[in-house]
Amino acid sequence: MRLSTRFKGIDRSENLQSLIERRIYFALSRFSPRVTSVSVVVEDINGDRGGIDKRCQISIKLDRKDELRVDATHADVEGAVSLAANRAGRIVQRKLELWRSAQRQCKHSQKPTEQYDDVIPTD
């Protein structure tokens, strides 16, 4: 699973980068065989005006070429990252469950061909 991070209007720091990596890996590591890459964008929407203006956007690419997007806003960066990472984990889990149920439906909908060893003549 590749992880890329971008910052817009927020100073990049080692602590913030480490927090993002920990939150993403905690939320998505159990799906790592299916998740090919994760892109995180953290930005300050309103600049210096304050308020609930920190946004974290996460794009997740799965092995079947699907792309999932998650967005969360919060008053601080850590909260936005945590909310978005938790949502990302739930959305990936839901998507994989849909794939599994679709596979089960396909297997159950195929009728097995019946073969009879004893053929009774109809004279």
TrEMBL record:
Pfam families: Ribosomal_S30AE. GO terms for cellular component: ribosome. SUPFAM superfamilies: Ribosome binding protein Y (YfiA homologue). It comes from Bythopirellula polymerisocia. This is Sigma 54 modulation protein / S30EA ribosomal protein. Keywords: Ribonucleoprotein, Ribosomal protein. Residues 102-123 are annotated as: Disordered. The keyword Cytoplasm does not apply.
